[in-house]
Amino acid sequence: MMVPHSETDLCVSVVSQAAAADPWDVVIIGAGPAGSAAATLIANNGLRVLLLDRENLPRPKVCGCCLSPLALSELDLLSRQSTRPLKLRIQPLRKLTIASQGHATSVPYATGGVLSRLELDTQLAAHAVATGTTWLPNTRALHWQTDGDCVLLSVQTKNNATYQIQTRRLLLAAGLHNAVRCDDSQCSQAQQRKRPPHNRIGLGATLPSTGGPLDPEHLIMAIGDGGYCGLIRLEDNTIDVAAAIHPSKLQKDESPAEALSHILSQAFEATTCPVNIATLKETPIRATPQLTHQTGTLDPDCNKIFRIGDAVGYIEPFTGEGIGWALRSARLASEALVTEGNRLRPADQAAARYHRRYHQALAWHHRRCRLVSLALRSPRFVSTSVQLAGYFPNLTGPVARLITGNSLVG
Ligand SMILES: Cc1cc2nc3c(=O)[nH]c(=O)nc-3n(C[C@H](O)[C@H](O)[C@H](O)COP(=O)(O)OP(=O)(O)OC[C@H]3O[C@@H](n4cnc5c(N)ncnc54)[C@H](O)[C@@H]3O)c2cc1C
């Protein structure tokens, strides 16, 4: 049984006047997995941490909701490293099916997990608050400027009131949204995100529990031309739909629901689709900004500002690893920011340490994921591979686990 959301709802733990009163040790923008994990780890060391988000929690998030081995091991470490255990009711993920042009191949998948983002993000933020983090929802970060030893962050409430918060270090964990800008005309242009051509966007929906005969613990990846779509049953029996598609699909007079329906009907023969495609038309569909980008761990204009999670960079989500990367980057940033004596490390030293360790830990995962996303650009390659997998089932499991990083924690 899941803990109902109502039991874990987060109350505002600070009001705007109090948030603005004294400088914080660390302010974190964004309460996704990266922001909340970093808040827990830093607050655990006794520092004053403010975690803010433009939304309140629980809130929906476009995501396949699969937890990679790296994500699972980071969640376990987060629980063991903090003063309170983290209780998450993660379901196992046991089977992966890849479908393309009417062919499908399945492999056992022994080391993954599934949890809705409503539940994961709310529990992680609640855990951060229980560890001593101050929580400020419904507050959008707008821009920053340096102010002596501090960073001055301008924020806006849902009622459009703006005010400023002072902090010694600022962690940007705002995901794919490059929302926070420097307020100073002297700032370099390097703030622009590097994005490749033919970039895709994310689409996501939650289908009602009557949405089709999809087994629990079974991830389905449907591949069509111009995109792919993951389907998984969540803990409350609803079906999570998460897709990456080329935006031109939406420009050709297709609605998001039609674009998702096309991918599913291209991948499956009419009778074998595991969800009821018609329900997509009645379901709200959320979209993300462009997915693949490379922005960097540090801010080029201020050594007190660090990026974690998707804010550093992201590669299309086929292999389902973003949450693991976000959690790992949160841990690396926390270790770089705080000394063993529970003090803030000098900014230059922290920046160099974080940058080095981030690349040591995650560069290989990013390269592998980039290769997979390139291969997926060729529908012929994908459908031939899926057919070949049917002929050589013994090879399929190890290859699938290698490309999805399922056998690689580290
Ligand atoms: C289609 C799709 C499928 C995916 N499937 C998977 C999967 O199965 N498994 C997996 O591991 N990963 C998956 N991912 C990737 C995963 O969702 C991300 O990598 C992960 O959410 C990154 O976490 P984060 O904490 O960096 O950012 P986010 O989770 O995006 O959190 C960012 C937070 O910042 C807040 N915010 C944004 N701007 C501001 C602002 N200006 N002020 C205040 N707050 C702000 C947002 O409200 C949000 O709460 C998928 C992604 C997509 C698009």
Give the helices and strands, then pairings.
Elements: H1 5-8, H2 16-21, E1 24-29, H3 33-43, E2 49-52, E3 66-67, H4 69-81, E4 91-100, E5 103-114, H5 117-130, E6 134-136, E7 139-147, E8 150-157, E9 162-172, E10 181-182, E11 201-207, E12 218-224, E13 227-233, E14 239-245, H6 248-251, H7 256-267, E15 286-290, E16 293-294, E17 298-299, E18 302-307, E19 313-314, H8 322-337, H9 347-375, H10 379-391, H11 393-403
Parallel strand pairs: 1-2, 1-9, 2-6, 4-12, 7-10, 9-18
Antiparallel strand pairs: 3-5, 4-5, 7-8, 8-9, 11-14, 11-15, 12-13, 13-14, 16-19, 17-18
Flavin-adenine dinucleotide (FAD) binds at residues 29-35, 52-55, 61-66, 68, 71, 140-141, 173-175, 177, 179-180, 202, 204, 242-244, 288, 291, 309-311, 317, 320-324, 326.
Question: Taking Cα atoms only, what radius of gyration do you get, to the nearest Å?
Answer: 21 Å
What is the molecular shape?
Answer: globular
pLDDT < 50 stretches: 1-7
Q: Characterize the largest beta sheet: strand count, sense, and whether it forms a barrel.
A: 9 strands, mixed
SSE series: HHEHEEHEEHEEEEEEEEEHHEEEEEHHHH
Structural class: alpha/beta
CATH first level of the domain at 5-60 and 117-183 and 292-370: Alpha Beta
Q: Could you estimate the helical fraction of the residues in percent? A: 25-40%
